[in-house]
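Note to self: keep these together.
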Amino acid sequence: MTKDYFKNPALGAFLSDLQEIIFVNGKRLSYKSICQDAKLTKRNYAKIKTGDNKSIYAYYAVFRIYLHALLEHPNRRLLLMVLKALYEALESDFETRKKLNRK
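Structure:
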């Protein structure tokens, strides 16, 4: 018997956007470097980007790659904008989950 899990499409989209927006050490991270840094297979990272990975740890493993760069960035507004976007993604997935649980 498989355990039910909920997808996190908003969180996956948020992490996809980070790859395009946030530079780490002055460069945009490649798919390969994200997989290496987060210790994920390419398949698992693809699932994260679509919100179809079961493990919340995997999503955090990707986010933390960008966290240091955000904390060190001279523009504090960027950190606040990213945290707000993260909050909105988590809320969106949470609300979807609540609706599915009511059915």
